[in-house]
């Protein structure tokens, strides 16, 4: 082991014998530092003999107040050695093997963690100060892996990891804090790696916080005063506290909405003095004016997190817990909050439960979900008002609005919307699915995001689609209080202010109805590629098979290597995952104030998995009418649509529609939706499939402040293709990630200004990249 002390310019190397190698350094060059531990360092090398027995050095620690004092741990011996005078100041012989030994923060005593489930405290002069024994005995306990102690104005505070009763609680990951008359077992969801005491970065001498590092997250606990409680994080957020199920990027948020989000954010309101870690502020800010950007992440436990995405350092603004709208989840949360507040109110009331050890669950990491129906599948954000629409796996949707005042929300009401008139034709397993039960009591909400109340009521609204299959698309238009939700069985357009269903429609025919719902959205990444390339190979086959002299058997032999066998939908052969039905809604998008057909005004567009696009007009009196329908011959899933307006270009219409499918990009004129010459056949020519596609605004790289709009496509091979909107032959290709990184490709999203976000392997890291960064990025905050 190696111990390195920066302030005193010396380092210590432990060896598997009874000596140390001590090196004194006057200056250190970290860039060109190469040490050969086999060779002594001349006059600076000192071999220090500490005992007569040949034992292994297991650990060492330096005193914070007097760095020259080293605490050395052997098999059953502890030694305090003074480097300045080269003298052993104290030593202790222990009955059991020490797991770890550390100085207190004030340097007045030493705390030793023992393998029998206890810890000891010694003074530097050699006497034993405290022997609390096995805390959670008398039955055999796990070893105490690490123990720390320090002095506060309320008495001596001890903290140790492990030490739980082996038979009853051997599977718990805990750190226990003990003070006179009070004991608390902090229970974590992942193994504890390390912990330490820390004071406020403002210079306070008394330790106020306990920092616990687990395998999955960092947890900060305030333990210096009477109240013991977790502290909200200001950095190092656990992105994967619950599995990320969907991501959405929003740009050009209204300045008023952006200011309110920052003003009432609970993470922004936390004062700097209440945070133990300090770091240098960013010295340079991004010169771009497009800072009002948000990244929304949906999680498996029903949470929705809002992150700032306009700067290099992303900060968590809000966490919306949609599970509180479900019966059972809100009661557990309210009971847990009330019990935590009561336990922190008075020190004498810390043991409100008869359970021993007194466990207290902390941390955000939660690998398990109480109900899979709570998982967030799709998100929509209105940049003009800040309203959020959430679509979940149970087939229900919720609407949240931003409110600057605390409010009490009454019991949630359910708006049932059946997409099928007759459900006898669907599979029994789908027909038996049931929606969630909303909470039946009022709930208090702080300033921030709250469930949007319905008209003339303070209760929230929960939209439940049936059959209760996962939401596949969602969109919101808050100016007119419109919510559009789609599943595999169709879509519904709802006025959530008046609690009224404006329009509902299913796109399934009788042939697809029996197989509808058999596919879970989480299995899409494993499906076969036969549907995406079937039509391309079929056209190639027809073009090259004009020779009529070949018999049918020979023709089948020639086509067999290039075309997979076409099987009936719903068949599961050779491990191929069945495909979604053609009527599955892949896209819902509101496009306000455009001309469509003979109507001028707001529109809503619906794209399906079978390559169909429907354009509906929205009248002023709240009616929804189908104006245009596009049926693509290659029947590939619709990925996105974009409205392009370029009145200065004489070679293209003033307003046109770009339809992006899994296989190609097509251009159509507006309002008649006639095909244009803009057409990119990606699967037929290149063999790629399109996962995501949108318009991006990129700046010029030569200092010109102007910018241009391009079409960016993310392919299934991990690449990005950028096309000009005027001539698709002008394009560029970039590599984003490996083709084998299926999870990263499926999770990738594009921002309006050319940034790409995707999850790294393990879904615990978020990777960012940019198509165009003309200015130097701001420096990463460092200490």
TrEMBL record:
Gene3D superfamilies registered for this protein in UniProt: YVTN repeat-like/Quinoprotein amine dehydrogenase
Region described as Disordered: spans on this chain: 537-556
All copies of domain Lethal giant larvae homologue, residue ranges: 134-228
Keywords assigned by UniProt, alphabetized: Exocytosis, Repeat, WD repeat
The UniProt record lists the keyword Ribosomal protein: no
Keyword Coiled coil belongs to the record: no
GO biological process, one term: establishment of spindle orientation
Record-level GO cellular component terms: cortical actin cytoskeleton; plasma membrane
Superkingdom of the organism of origin: Eukaryota
Molecular function GO labels: GTPase activator activity; myosin II binding; syntaxin binding
Protein family (similarity comment): Belongs to the WD repeat L(2)GL family.
Protein name, UniProt field: Lethal giant larvae homologue 2 domain-containing protein
Origin species: Mesorhabditis spiculigera
Taxonomic path: Eukaryota, Metazoa, Ecdysozoa, Nematoda, Chromadorea
